[in-house]
Specification:
Length: about 190
């Protein structure tokens, strides 16, 4: 009789442990799914922010360049380091426009650290920009999202460069394909 009682107690303890562990693993699995969904949402949001500018859309009032040094379809080699793997990359011009390009400094609206001498924001991407090129030191609001936190940020113009700007498709020196990269100026491109 004592053996039956011990066996029953052992069996109940075992079942209790299995049930309790089952609930825990189910809770752990549920937490993993929730965390994974949150992570995926954060990544999608960051990717959406980061690639908004890769759409190929340009401001409606942006004028197509009449006689650019690198017409659409030209193969180019890039001599700029706006991003990792850009310097020395080869690509194809997919847009050429007459405007003024600015390097700007700004504090991102998403709370990031100040970005200094960001290249390039064009005249048509600045709120309140008049017809004439802006002088260095002028403050304006950025109305584009080349990088997260840019749209709506107050920016100070550091330099201005008049002339054609180019939108380019290229493959970085590390193998990443980049479509509709905005913007490169003529001095940053050469024929390969």
């Amino acid at each position: 009789m004592k053996k039956n009682w011990t066996f029953t107690l052992f069996l109940l303890s075992f079942l209790f442990t299995v049930v309790a562990c089952g609930d825990t693993s189910e809770q752990i699995d549920k937490n993993k799914v929730e965390n994974q969904q949150t992570s995926e949402e954060q990544v999608e949001t960051k990717q959406a922010d980061a690639i908004e500018d890769r759409s190929g859309k340009v401001p409606l009032d942006l004028k197509v360049a009449d006689n650019p040094a690198f017409p659409v379809g030209s193969k180019v080699k890039i001599y700029a380091n706006h991003m990792d793997g850009m310097e020395g990359a080869e690509g194809v011009v997919v847009g050429a426009y007459d405007t003024t390009a600015y390097s700007v400094s700004f504090r991102p609206t998403d709370g990031g650290e100040e970005v200094k001498h960001y290249k390039w924001v064009i005249h048509e991407e600045l709120e309140g920009a008049s017809g004439d090129p802006m002088e260095p030191g002028r403050e304006l609001v950025i109305n584009t999202e080349h990088i997260p936190g840019m749209r709506g940020a107050s920016a100070t113009i550091e330099t201005a460069e008049e002339g054609p700007v180019y939108m380019v498709d290229f493959t970085t020196t590390t193998g990443e394909e980049v479509k509709n990269y905005k913007w490169l100026v003529e001095g940053e491109l050469v024929a390969p």
